[in-house]
């Protein structure tokens, strides 16, 4: 199929590679570029078999480059939507670290290739584990294949529907982050309230220094006890990823 219809395969390869380049599981630093290219080529070949040939008769080189750039942009947009939950986990982990006083314990995150607070790294690893355990990587690739039903090759349109969808999902990142970090925020508020009262009763007490150990201990305890609840929240959002990708594809098709 690649040799019989190379233009169709190239266009599919651009969209698939764009999505794999930004999705955390496939864009990790531990995954060599050669593996990502081979995976993109293999997935593109499997998807190309199920698609009608692209009418490339009379297509100039500049038109082909423009179509490739458009398809790569569609893939990047779909990968960005698939990565929304991981942005929310980073935000939730940063809030947790701030509430527990663990801002200095940052570790290298292999998925974002940057230093991340330890709670955020734990949540990212938990999300990747759940993602693989539920076989959602296959469902996500199936959703990528179905995007061609709504956005055929060269048919993407950036319009108000797409912008509204992206704004709605971007604002939802903060809501998800607050929901996940809510138990630790509540415990930190209670500890702060108690030590504020103690500071009023005993003015000689250094409230900040004395409350630091309690914040860290209580925060780590609550984090461990609510990890199962966080995993349930993460699972619910991960299971919606293929549907989210298709909704954005529908918006791209409408323009």
Return the string of H and E elements.
Answer: HHHHHEEHHHHHH
Count of helical segments? 11
What structural category do the secondary elements indicate?
mainly alpha
Q: Overall 3D geometry?
A: elongated
Mean pLDDT: 82
Largest sheet: 2 strands, antiparallel
Strand proportion, as a percent range, falls in under 5%
The total of beta strands comes to 2
The residue ranges in which pLDDT falls below 50 over 5 or more consecutive positions are: none
Strand order of the largest sheet: 1-2
- Helix amount: over 70%
The end-to-end distance, rounded to whole angstroms, is 31 Å
Count of domain modules: 1
What is the radius of gyration computed over CA atoms, rounded to a whole number of angstroms? 23 Å
How does this structure look, described?
This protein is 77% helix and 3% strand. It has helices spanning 6-22, 24-27, 33-49, 61-82, 84-100, 118-133, 136-150, 160-201, 207-225, 227-239, 241-254; strands at 106-109, 114-117. It is elongated. The chain has one domain (6-254). It contains 11 helices and 2 strands.
């Amino acid at each position: 199929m690649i040799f019989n219809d190379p233009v169709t395969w190239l266009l599919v390869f651009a969209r698939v590679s764009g999505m794999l380049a930004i999705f955390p599981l496939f864009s990790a630093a531990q995954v060599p570029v050669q593996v990502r290219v081979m995976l993109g080529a293999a997935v593109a070949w499997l998807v190309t078999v199920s698609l009608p040939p692209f009418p490339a008769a009379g297509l100039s080189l500049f038109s082909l480059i423009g179509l490739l750039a458009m398809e790569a942009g569609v893939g990047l947009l779909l990968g960005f939507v698939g990565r929304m939950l991981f942005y929310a986990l980073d935000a939730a982990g940063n809030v947790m670290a701030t509430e527990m006083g663990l801002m200095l314990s940052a570790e290298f995150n292999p998925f974002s290739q940057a230093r991340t607070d330890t709670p955020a790294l734990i949540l990212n690893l938990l999300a990747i584990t759940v993602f693989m355990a539920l076989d959602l990587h296959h469902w996500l690739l199936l959703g990528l294949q179905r995007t061609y039903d709504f956005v055929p090759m060269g048919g993407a349109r950036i319009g108000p529907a797409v912008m509204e969808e992206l704004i709605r999902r971007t604002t939802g990142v903060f809501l998800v982050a607050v929901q996940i970090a809510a138990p630790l925020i509540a415990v930190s508020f209670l500890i702060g309230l108690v030590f504020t009262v103690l500071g009023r009763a005993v003015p000689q007490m250094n409230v900040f220094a004395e409350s630091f150990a309690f914040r860290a201990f209580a925060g780590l305890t609550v984090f461990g006890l609510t990890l199962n609840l966080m995993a349930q929240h993460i699972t619910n959002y991960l299971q919606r990823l293929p549907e989210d990708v298709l909704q954005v594809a529908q918006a791209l098709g409408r323009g």
